[in-house]
Amino acid sequence: MTRRTYPFYFIAIALAFYIIFTVVPSLMGIYLSFTDWNSYAKAIHFIGFDNFKTIFSSDENYLHGIKNTVIFTISTIILKTVIGLLLAVLVNKGIKLQSFHRVIIFMPAIIPMLVVGIIFKSIFHPETGLINEALRAIGLSQWTQHWLTDIDWAFKSIIAVDVWKGVGYIMVILLAGLQAISHTYYEAADIDGAGAFKKFRFITVPLLMPALMVTTVLNLLYGLKIFDTVYVLTNGGPGYATDVVYTQVFSQFSLGSYGVGTALITILFIIMTLLGYFAVKLMSREEQH
Amino acid sequence: MANKFMKNPIQNIAIWIISIIAIVPILLIVINAFKSAPEASSMNFNLPSELRFGNFSTVIEKGKLVHSFLNSITYSSLSSLFCILFSAMAAYVLSRNKTRFNRFIYFFMIMGIALPVNYFTLIDVMKWTELINTKAGIIVLYMVTQIPFSVFILYGFIGGVPKELDEAGVIDGCGPKRLFFSVIFPMLQPAAVTVFILSFLNTWNEFLLPLYYLNSANKWPMTLAVYNFFGQFQQSWNLVSADIILTILPVIIIYLLGQRFIISGMTSGSVKG
Questions:
Q1: Which of B67, B113, B63, B74 is nearest to B203 (CA)?
Q2: What are the extents of the domains in chain A?
Q3: CATH, range B63-232
Q4: Taking the domains of chain B in order of start, what are their residue ranges?
Q5: What are the angstrom distances between the C-alpha of B101 and each of A73, A123, A284?
Q6: HEC assignment per residue over A147-185
Q7: Of A8, B30, B99, B144, which is most buried by a Cβ count within 10 Å?
Q8: For residue B217, how many other CB atoms are within 10 A of its CB?
């Protein structure tokens, strides 16, 4: 009965699309990253590990892009988690207009990253931008910066914009996690005379761990693929200071040198497959209880 | 008691400050969209001398936005609808018939949530399937990118739909298609709405696939149109702001109407509830 009631072709349609447009290109990419594939020459030659040697050579700029991507990912994970957790705790306490604030704080998360980039390009403008104007207005003109063109500030500004956009999403997940914690734990701790910090440390944090793991994995997968923000705000500049892996992939694509670009994606593919395996295990473990 | 009394005003002030930080950039765009070009040359919170609604019609005309708007609507709604249909069918069978093989297929498919798109080799696949630089191609790609997450959400939801319904349907003589479309699919409505809204928002906001694969302006979605408009009219911030508003307005309306679904979808998998 099961086989007739639950036919395989129900699965097959989605599966076929997924295999053709996701799995096949990824596997082809692994093979082609060992070739000199480009958009000009017809013939493709096997060149061994040359593309990977190029990527990891110190004469080239790719290591810098990888380093930036890692810095971006780690700093956004830390900032979004810490701020998101503070916000979730704050919103969870019986404040006035709780759902109003939640709606507002989450709003940046649903706006296209591209648009956020354009808006902040105006806000960061050295002469007419909101931030420098505000700093001048309150007499802190020595704090004004060329936020997006100063080599020391450009990447920090990008990280700040990304945290502004993403923190509401993390807050919402952690808030749902907080609300799932039973009051009885806190009541028992009150009877034992535990203070606010001890309650946070020994009840909230451990019981929130699954939610924190999920937000970390989400931020990790998102951070490694960061593109829109950088592309619009600085396009990798000044110089190559804010290049990340995906902006480098896009410039390889524009240059037509597909071999190196594919090799970059293949490196990401391997990392993401491992992370994805972990993420899927995590999500389906959650599902079982 | 006194401590608690003191704590609450501070928390309320703190949360107001955060909310203001979250909303200020959006308000900035709203205010400047109604200004004249010289007034908006410095983007600030000075109110416009008069409300220039004309900015919006200028933008729609100069940015050819009607076209892009219709493109975006087509891409997002069709890809989301097909995505729900195929994902629900797959999730239903995967969840009902948990053989070893099907369990593997489920893991294999939701791994797609993590995988990066290989833009280089995907061109070849798009050429073989004759979908390169076509509207259908973008719809297919958007649908495919949303399938893994949709299968994940729907699979979890179908687990809660009683299996007795299937048995009753079979006894009444339903074939698998009728059983699914007239009995099961209507039951999935709450999850289907969540999936639709999330995948609509994701595809509406997406920028990379059209940037890589659509080279003719008449196929551009709103994101690409707004980016191109920004490149051309960088000096006219009033017009750029108006353009931005037209791009994000549909998203914000959907968000305000459907935020319950959005939040339930985005938090599923992290918290059981």
A1: B74
A2: 64-242
A3: 1.10.3720.10
A4: 63-232
A5: 35, 53, 17
A6: CCCCCCCHHHHHHHHHHHHHHHHHHHHHHHHHHCCCHHH
A7: B144
A8: 12
Q: Is the pLDDT of residue A54 over 60?
A: yes
ipTM: 0.89
Q: Exposed, middle or buried, B201 (CB in 10 Å: 0-12/13-18/19+)?
A: buried
CB contact under 8 A, B113 and A122: no
d(CA B166, CA B191): 19
Say what the pLDDT of residue A1 is.
59
CA distances from A79 to A86, A145, A171, A216 (A): 11, 22, 12, 11
More confident residue, B100 or B261: B100
Judge whether B261 is closer than 8 Å to chain A, CB to CB.
no
Per-residue pLDDT for A222 more than 50? Answer: yes
Q: Is the CB of residue B117 less than 8 Å away from at least one CB of chain A?
A: yes
B163 touches chain A (CB under 8 A): no
For residue A238, what are the CA distances in angstroms to A67, A144, A151, A153, B32?
Answer: 16, 18, 6, 10, 28
- Rounded-to-integer distance, Cα A132 and Cα A144, Å: 5
Q: Are A132 and B227 in contact (CB under 8 A)?
A: no
Identify the helix (H) or strand (E) that includes residue B60: helix B54-62
pLDDT-based confidence at residue A263 (cuts at 50, 70, 90): very high
Cis bond before residue A206 (omega within 30° of 0): no
Query: Measured between alpha carbons, how far is B38 from A102 in angstroms, rounded to an integer?
Result: 36
**A138 reaches B (C-beta below 8 A):** no
What tens digit of pLDDT does each residue of A159-189 get?
Answer: 999 999 999 999 988 998 898 888 888 889 8
Closest residue by Cα to residue A212 from A108, A99, A80: A80
Q: What is the largest CA-CA distance in chain B?
A: 73
8 A C-beta contact, residue A86 and residue A119? no
Would you say the pTM of this structure is higher than 0.90? Answer: no
CATH of A64-242, one of 3.40.640.10, 3.90.1150.10, 1.10.3720.10, 2.40.50.140: 1.10.3720.10
Of B89, B110, B248, the CB nearest to A115: B248
**Strand intervals (E) in chain B:** none
Rounded Cα distance, B49 and B44, in Å = 13
How far is it, in rounded angstroms, from Cα B56 to Cα B47? Answer: 17
At A289, the pLDDT band (50, 70, 90 cuts) reads very low
